[in-house]
Amino acid sequence: MPSLRLPFSISSLCASAVAVLLVAYIGVIAVVMTYAALTVEFSQSVRNDEAAVAALESAYLADVARLTSTDYAAVGYAKPRATTFIRAQSSTALR
Fold first, then answer.
1. Into how many domains does the chain fold?
2. For a surface tag, which of 4, 13, 16, 53 has the fewest beta carbons within 10 Å of its beta carbon?
């Protein structure tokens, strides 16, 4: 019975497979580390944005509190003598 002779050795095939798997493993680790870094960066960005929104809300609420506590008569405003309503024309282009 003639023996089957392969054009390559099993050890070189295994060494090539190990090299390919090692490169793939390093690539997967690089992808995971990049994803982790981007996730941390995004969460920090969200925290910074929340802090900016909180500061703006605080300033807005302080302005609203100042306006509602203003004594308009002391500032020089007076109540209107009469209230009238004026009918406005339609502001749409469809007529």
1. 1
2. 4
